[in-house]
Amino acid sequence: MRRVLMMVVLSACGRSGDCPDGFVMESGECVPAVEGACPPGQVVDGSGECVEPGSDDDVESSPTNDTTTDDSDSDTTSPYTGGWPYNPDKDELEDPGTTGRLALGVPFPRVVGTDQYGDAVDLYDFVGHDRKSVVFLAAMWSASSQDLASWLTGGRADPDLQDRFGDLPALYADNEIEIVTFLIEDLDGEQAEPMHAVEWNDAYPAALAVLTEVDPVLPVYCNVVDYPWLILIDDERLVLSNNGTFWHMVP
């Protein structure tokens, strides 16, 4: 945000009383006593000149809050508290729905979940950024889900997981891949709710989206037989792996 430097201009000739309030006499003319002040009806543009409000110069110099995403390839403002990616063109993508079963090479369905901040997050916001995405289906009661979450968030090293899936923690940290967690079940094996996303995020703190579905459809659609379950999709949301080894498919 541009800040206007407030500086009193001292005049060597004339008296400030000869000019309107806020102005002083300089070289026989009334000039602003404070740099950045303008006569009534005018504003300061980016070069410090007084211009009519609404002019091109005024619009270009208007201060704005920088709330853009940290994506190097995007200047689109993120609507999410967590700063997740945002795809303004997602509505142009056809949603295949969740009828039938997931298959390789087909588009992953458009799923919306509530994240740890209470925001409704659209999975299709994570595509369209020249990066692949990992969809992590987890259960709170699953020790393997806990181990995987700890590994993904940098809490532990696990050569076996790295051999199977590649160095996902480093790839995510370097903004080369997206990771989205869908928390399916709580500690009692019941459907996970938004409060459980908060608990999971507290247990494995990192800048990862943790979502819960109102009516979970992914376990059945993705043929999940145990947790954790990892699905790899490309930037066009095509399924590359459904819980298989995919270290050779990531950057």
Can you offer a commentary on this structure?
- This protein has 251 residues and is an alpha+beta fold.
- It folds into two domains: 16-61, no CATH class; 90-249, Glutaredoxin.
- 17% of the residues lie in helices and 19% in strands.
- The chain contains six helices and eleven strands.
- It has helices spanning 56-61, 143-152, 159-165, 168-173, 194-203, 218-221; strands at 23-26, 29-32, 43-44, 50-51, 112-114, 120-122, 132-139, 177-185, 209-211, 229-233, 239-242.
Described by strand count, sense and barrel closure, the largest sheet is:
5 strands, mixed
Q: Specify Rg, calculated over alpha carbons.
A: 27 Å
* Strand content range: 15-25%
Number of separate strands: 11
Helix-strand string: EEEEHEEEHHHEHEHEE
Task: Give the mean pLDDT.
Answer: 81
CATH superfamily of the largest domain: Glutaredoxin
First-to-last CA distance = 36 Å
Helix residue percentage: 10-25%
Count of helical regions: 6
Under the CATH scheme, which class of the largest domain? Alpha Beta
CATH-derived architecture of the largest domain: 3-Layer(aba) Sandwich
Report the uncertain regions: 1-17, 58-75
- Kindly report the spatial arrangement of strands forming the biggest sheet: 9-8-7-10-11
Structural class of the secondary structure composition? alpha+beta
Shape: elongated
